[in-house]
């Protein structure tokens, strides 16, 4: 399936402001990039680098005035990867590859080592078979028990906050899922990008777990994990995958996000839903 994603950030800049962005797509298995664009108006130079997680990043200094940043991508993507049957087996920590070990550690927004998180993880999934069944139970519990609501959380909201107050957006849903899965020694990371199946189109966040030697996506916002996705970045939590990070006096005035599927969804895939 060919899929397009577009995001337009408009800023009022009151003093020259250094920013870093993660707005260009990853090149990896499951998504083949057909075309992409990254434009800043007024035109200014920017540099690029790759971060610790392999995410393509951009860096520039915004001039005073109104600045618009536009990112576009068209990609050939597969439907969201489904868990195979038989289910992949849970991996003991001793058997995990070195490169995923940091995904079982607590992080800034995902305090997986706290007693409160442990108690909730045990309540939801403590009696289930380790691995997929636990992850799906956590995903389903968050979907059914946390209310999706804009404007009640901010950049300081953590997994523990969401466990207590139970209101938030996709970023918050994902942080709580990550913390609960890591508490059960399941490597889990945060992924951001575009998803076609959203009621209100926006840049989206979901989580991926490492079981049976591979990464699988789970989405606590959806009733079930499905749809087509373009991955932009992944990391431990939102601190690693912020779309825009600014170091100065600039105010985001608007963000417009567009997602489009360019071909009809295959009938076979529809019948399998």
Provide structural commentary.
There is one protein chain. This protein is of the alpha+beta class and 273 residues long. It has 2 domains: 106 residues, Immunoglobulin-like, CATH 2.60.40.2250; 135 residues, C8orf32 fold. It is built from 5 helices and 14 strands. The protein is globular, with a radius of gyration of 19 Å. The two termini are 16 Å apart. 19% of the residues lie in helices and 37% in strands. The longest helix is centred in the middle third of the chain and has 14 residues. Strands 3-6-1-14 form a 4-stranded antiparallel beta sheet, with no helix packed on it.
Summarize the helices and strands and which ones pair or pack.
Blueprint: E1 2-13, E2 17-21, E3 31-41, E4 47-50, E5 56-62, E6 65-77, H1 115-125, H2 132-145, E7 147-148, H3 159-165, E8 167-168, H4 170-183, E9 188-195, E10 204-211, E11 214-218, E12 229-235, E13 244-247, E14 250-261, H5 267-271
């Amino acid at each position: 399936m060919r899929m397009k994603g577009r995001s337009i950030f408009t800023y009022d800049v009151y003093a020259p402001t250094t920013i870093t962005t993660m707005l260009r797509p990853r090149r990896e298995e499951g998504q083949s990039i057909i075309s992409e664009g990254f434009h800043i108006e007024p035109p200014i130079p920017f540099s690029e680098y790759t971060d610790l997680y392999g995410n393509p990043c951009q860096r520039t200094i915004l001039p005073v005035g109104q600045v618009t940043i536009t990112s576009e991508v068209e990609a050939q993507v597969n439907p969201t990867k489904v868990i195979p049957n038989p289910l992949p087996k849970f991996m003991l920590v001793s058997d995990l590859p070195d490169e995923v070990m940091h995904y079982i550690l607590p992080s800034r927004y995902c305090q997986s080592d706290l007693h409160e998180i442990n108690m909730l993880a045990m309540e939801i999934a403590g009696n289930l078979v380790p691995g997929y069944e636990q992850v799906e139970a956590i995903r389903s519990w968050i979907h059914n028990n946390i209310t999706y609501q804009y404007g009640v959380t901010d950049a300081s909201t953590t997994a523990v906050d969401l466990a207590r107050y139970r209101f938030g957006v996709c970023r918050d849903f994902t942080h709580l899922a990550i913390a609960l899965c890591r508490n059960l020694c399941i490597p889990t990371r945060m992924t951001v990008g575009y998803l076609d199946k959203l009621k209100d189109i926006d840049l989206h966040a979901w989580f991926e777990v490492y079981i049976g030697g591979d990464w699988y996506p789970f989405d606590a916002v959806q009733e079930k994990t499905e749809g087509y996705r373009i991955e932009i970045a992944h990391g431990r939590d939102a601190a690693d995958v912020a779309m825009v990070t600014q170091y100065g006096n600039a105010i985001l005035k608007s963000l417009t996000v567009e997602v489009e599927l360019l071909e009809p969804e295959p009938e076979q895939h529809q019948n399998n839903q």
